[in-house]
Write a structure and sequence with these properties.
Layout (H helix, E strand, L loop, with lengths): L1 H20 L3 H9 L6 H7 L1 E5 L3 H14 L3 E6 L4 E9 L3 H16 L9 E16 L2 E14 L4 E6 L2 H19 L1
Antiparallel strand pairs: 1-5, 2-3, 3-4, 4-5, 5-6
Helix pairs in contact: 4-6
Length: 183
């Protein structure tokens, strides 16, 4: 038992040693915390589509319909400013994650160590849409997704959903809806 206590006291000191080697570590860390993503431009381009001969209002109305079709509840809509936000609640429990946590708990108990298992329980998926006029005949539409995952201890984390299929699937549905309404 004494060995564990000593180890717990020494670990933070050992972890801090590399920081002592670089006197500028605090400045570097501060710059990294607020720094933009290195792939921000690529991500923005992937999340944006251009639409010809479609007004911002019509594009935003179609985006609203698509989000609702996908199960989102519209939380904010400001057509005058070309902004729309929605969310949907989903279960986040994954059987392999729960089974793994239970296995770790049992193994730790066999070793005489207490382990408090943790797994994801709920998630809220949020979508944010914005439009922008690119001139009299063209409008851009941008969509971004994120999810807020809560675990069985009530702790939440935010994850950006940046896979290309999120935005491309959304844009395909918007284009299909616009085509259906014009024919």
């Amino acid at each position: 038992m004494r060995g564990r206590v000593a180890l717990c006291l020494l670990l933070p000191l050992v972890a801090a040693l590399p920081a002592c080697q670089d006197p500028e570590w605090a400045n570097k860390a501060a710059l990294q915390v607020g720094a933009p993503r290195t792939d921000a431009l690529v991500l923005r381009e992937r999340q944006t589509a251009r639409f010809a001969s479609i007004s911002e209002e019509r594009l935003l109305a179609e985006a609203t319909q698509v989000l609702q079709d996908l199960g989102f509840t519209i939380e904010e809509s400001a057509p005058r400013f070309g902004v729309l936000a929605g969310s949907k609640d989903r279960d986040a429990v994954e059987t392999p994650q729960v089974a793994g946590q239970i296995a770790i708990t049992v193994f730790a108990a066999l070793l005489g160590v207490h382990y408090d298992p943790m797994w994801d329980t709920d998630q809220v998926i949020r979508a944010t849409v914005s439009t922008r006029s690119l001139g009299p005949q063209e409008t851009s539409l941008r969509i971004s997704f994120e999810r807020i995952v809560t675990n069985n201890k009530g702790i939440s984390r935010v994850e950006e959903l940046t896979a290309p299929e999120f935005s491309t699937g959304f844009f395909e549905k918007v284009r299909a809806g616009l085509a259906q309404r014009t024919s």
